From TrEMBL:
Belongs to the ketopantoate reductase family. This is 2-dehydropantoate 2-reductase. GO terms for biological process: pantothenate biosynthetic process. Its EC number is 1.1.1.169. Coiled coil: none annotated. Signal peptide: none annotated. It comes from Pseudomonas kuykendallii. The keyword Endoplasmic reticulum does not apply.
Length: 303
């Protein structure tokens, strides 16, 4: 059974190239005929690892193709996920499986609403990749992938294929804890790096701001039924700030490049959930307002 991968961006390329080089059948899904023609001109996907570039000439098709899809890796941004799946809904086989690679919380429910008969498998990834050119991706940071299905703890039979492809992974019944924990880390670090215009390590100069955000994020996680995601959050945030001190956060990179951010699925979601649970988290709310004003002032979407 073929893997379909939607999105020839950073993570889509990283996954598709590794699956393909393990001899597994992979088909890329691109937006339209123009993008397909560009892909064919490029000769395939290029993956750069340890300075070595390899070319992977995978078969590709457009959203408008009609072949049925049994297993789809959805590798687009959170704000594109639901519309991408809506476009593919007529092609989903009755027991289709969707692997959702999106950061943050919220896009997963939006996708499930577009494909109510498909099994949605949520992925939380700490791997790092970025696009150096069109259809050329650099594997920048080794990490890990947690997979799980909050509605069904049974692991899928194809997990061994990920191992075969060298994709580090673990099936977990606690995928929501993983996603909320990552959301909290992203909320404590990313917006501040944008507002202070600094690398992650620059936040070591703002310890009080980081500490109060971690305390409020902890309250949020406790209050919304994710207490395990709150454990030792501040320590973990400080560890990540140190371990990634030289890096720019993904949100900082997006803003610097004039790209839309995933704020609605990160800090926006955190504030919406706090409001729904009647939690008063003034520093988190103020951070969200400052961030939205910062994005608006640069002509970037605030959702
Ligand atoms: P990306 O922007 O590099 O790639 C997304 C790709 O999806 C783009 O090529 C875009 O054109 C394509 N796309 C969007 N809508 C489409 C559609 N309807 N049809 C066909 N193609 C479509 O994004 P990314 O960095 O790979 O991130 C994907 C998700 O993974 C995000 O939620 C991100 O936060 C998360 N993530 C990324 C990294 C990373 O290192 N890049 C790490 C962890 C998590
Ligand atoms: O995931 C990250 C990001 O930049 O998006 C880290 C490195 C954890 C910072 O929040």
């Amino acid at each position: 059974m073929s893997w379909h991968v939607l999105g020839a961006g950073s993570l889509g390329t990283l996954w598709a190239a590794r699956l393909a080089r393990a001899g597994l059948p992979v088909t890329l899904i691109l937006r339209d005929e123009k993008r397909l023609a560009d892909y064919r001109r490029a000769g395939g996907l290029s993956l750069v690892e340890n300075g070595q570039r390899t070319l992977h000439p995978l078969p590709a098709e457009t959203l408008a193709d009609t072949a049925p899809i049994h297993r789809l890796l959805l590798a687009c941004k959170a704000y594109d996920a639901a519309s991408a799946v809506a476009a593919l809904a007529p092609r989903l086989a009755p027991k289709a499986e969707l692997l959702l690679l999106q950061n943050g919380i919220g896009s997963q429910e939006e996708v499930a609403a577009q494909a109510p008969h498909a099994r949605c498998i949520l992925v939380s990834s700490t791997e790092g990749a970025f696009r150096r050119a069109d259809f050329e991706v650099v594997f920048a940071g080794h990490g890990f992938n947690w997979l799980g299905d909050p509605l069904d703890p049974t692991p899928p039979g194809w997990l061994a294929q990920l191992e075969q492809a060298g994709i580090p992974r673990q099936w977990t019944p606690d995928i929501l804890t993983r996603l909320w924990r990552k959301l909290a880390l992203n909320c404590a670090i990313n917006p501040l790096t944008v507002l202070h215009d600094c690398r992650n390590g620059g936040l070591a100069e703002h310890p009080a701001e980081v500490a109060i955000l971690c305390a409020e994020l902890g309250e949020l996680l406790e209050g919304c039924g994710q207490p395990a995601a709150a454990e030792h959050l501040h320590d973990d945030v400080q560890r990540v700030i140190q371990a990634t001190a030289a890096n720019h956060s993904s949100m900082h990179q997006d803003v610097a490049a004039g790209r839309r951010t995933e704020v609605a699925y990160l800090l926006g979601r955190a504030c919406a959930v706090a409001e729904r649970h009647a939690l008063d988290l003034p520093h988190l709310r103020a951070l969200h307002q400052r961030l939205l004003a910062h994005l608006a002032a640069r002509g970037l979407p605030v959702h």
